[in-house]
Amino acid sequence: MGGVCSRKRDQQVVEDGMRRGVSGRYGKSGSSKWLLTSFLRPKAVHQPGVVICPSLMELCIDKICKDINQFSSFTMLPKDISQQIFDKLVLSHLLTDVILQKFRDCALEDVWLGEYPGVQDCWMDVISSQGTSLLSVDLSGSDVTDTGLGLLKECLSLQALTFNNCENISEIGLKHISGLPKLESLNIRCCKCITDLDLEAISGLNNLKELQISNSNITNSGLSYLRGLNKLNMLNLEGCNVTAACLDSISALIALAYSNLGRCGLTDDGCDKFSGLKNLKVLNLAFNNITDACLVHLKGLTNLESLNLDSCKVGDEGLAHLTGVSFLKRLELSDTEVGSNGLRHLSGLTHLETLNLSFTLVTDSGLKKLSGLTSLKSLNLDARQITDAGLSALTSLTGLVHLDLFGARISDGGTNYLRCFKNLQSFKICGEGLTDSGVKNIKDLRSLTLLNLSQNGNLTNKSLELISGIFCFFFSGFCGVVWCCSSSPRF
Questions:
Q1: Is residue 111 part of a domain?
Q2: pLDDT tens digits, 67-104
Q3: What is the pLDDT, as a whole number, of residue 42?
Q4: Pairwise CA distance, residues 185 & 211, whole Å
Q5: Which of 61, 158, 162, 443 is the most exposed place for a label (fewest CB within 10 A)?
Q6: Does residue 130 belong to any structural domain of this protein?
Q7: Res 469: pLDDT
Q8: 230 falls within a domain
């Protein structure tokens, strides 16, 4: 499905509601904010032409990092200062095993070394020396083994531990951490060496609230060890070799609110157990072989706020079972068999804020059924059969902030309807019907900060002049410009 401009991708499902990596709440130092397992941190947005003087603390940290070889230890510094120096070295990729020794016994709270090169067991001695001050550790992608992980067993205040893609960790290593009484978050995604028996080692972590074991070799049998984790709030099983029979164990998790079962190969068999997950707020079933028959068992999940059915074999009849899920805020239906007739079942979901209908069978006439969803903030209509007429049917959705019409056939005339979306911040549009004249209407969207105009071969330099220096935008096949970004404000 989708037209020539569409760019459907077979990617890992990302749920906004599914939290990954080390949660920021575990770090008390506040020196930096974690984002997934990378070293990206949010940057301050400065107005062009305005030079902001760094603080005295920032100057001191930069100076210390520059002269790092002149110091032998940072134990005499306040721990929040040591933390900032450590984080700066990591972000700058200047931390080595030799420099790490300078942080022995510094009472660091956060050690975030996910995907950092060279991390191995010899680093763990210094990391574990932080003792009861240590709150969160990320060792993702490292060569740390069971022996190194075992050194953390004395860090009794540890609340979050992440070691994604660590192939040298086994049941032995998990047994080492099974005695951490305050551990709330355990993330061991993409560790193929983790098997069912390994979960028995963590079955005693009674304070565990978040467990991520996606893309591992866990099966239904292993999940039975989790039944006693009564505080478990989030469980990520994406890509695991489980069937709907695992719902017997999952339904015993009385606090479970977030569940990711995407790419598990689930079928309708056994899906009746979904009806027991009454406390679920977020459910990801994307890229499974479920049909409308499965959705029958979701109609009683009245607390559900987010449902992902991307690429499932569901259609119009299945959506009828969602009418009772009245608090639903996010619904992903991309690449399903949903058509215009099914949209009538969504008209009562007045709390819906995000709706993805890309690569579906929905046509212009069906979009009229969405006119009452005035809470919508994000709408994806990346589908070839959507035209100007479909856009005209959406003019009542004045609260839209994000609109994706990338694969739709919108012409210059259709862009006249954009004046109704005064709150639009990001907009994607593609099509041979768009010319410089249509771009004039787009530039009048005063709140717009992100624009994707890829594959618009009819545009000229005049369009570039209209929007250059105002907001971020993508171009492809137009004037040779592939990427251009400006942080300049609109006014």
A1: yes
A2: 999 999 999 999 999 999 999 999 999 999 999 999 99
A3: 39
A4: 6
A5: 443
A6: yes
A7: 53
A8: no
CA distance 372 to 381: 17
Cβ proximity of 278 and 255 under 8 Å: no
Q: How many domains does the chain have?
A: 1
pLDDT of residue 258: 97
Instruction: Note every long-range contact of 210-213, with CB atoms under 8 Å and residues 24 or more positions apart, other chains counting.
Output: 210/19, 210/23, 210/184, 210/185, 210/186, 210/234, 211/186, 211/187, 211/235, 211/236, 212/20, 212/186, 212/187, 212/188, 212/236, 213/188, 213/189, 213/237, 213/240
CA distance 160 to 340: 45
Q: Which domain holds residue 85?
A: 17-41+53-193
Query: E strands, 270-310, where?
Result: 282-284, 306-308
Read off the pLDDT band of 435 (50, 70, 90): confident
End-to-end CA distance of the chain: 40
Give the whole-angstrom CA distance, residue 303 versus residue 276.
Answer: 12
Look up the pTM and report it: 0.84
State which amino acid sits at residue 355. Answer: L
pLDDT, tens only, 285-296: 999 999 999 999
**Residue 412 pLDDT > 50:** yes
Q: Could you tell me which residues are beta bridge partners of residue 313?
A: 291
Structure tokens belonging to residue 250: 């999952």
Indicate the SS3 state at residue 222.
helix
Q: Is residue 480 part of a domain?
A: no
Neighbours of 138 (CB within 10 A): 25
Distance CA 304, CA 278 (A): 8
Tally of residues, the chain: 491
CB 149 within 8 A of CB 122: no
25-39, 85-99, 440-454: lowest mean pLDDT where?
Answer: 25-39
Query: Strand, coil or helix: what is 404?
Result: strand
In this model, does residue 353 exceed pLDDT 90? yes
CA distance 369 to 345: 9
Q: Strands 185-187 and 234-236: what pairing? A: unpaired
Q: Are 205 and 178 in contact (CB under 8 A)?
A: yes
The candidate with the shortest Cα–Cα distance to 310, out of 347, 262, 342, is 262
Supply the CATH number for residue 59's domain.
Answer: 3.80.10
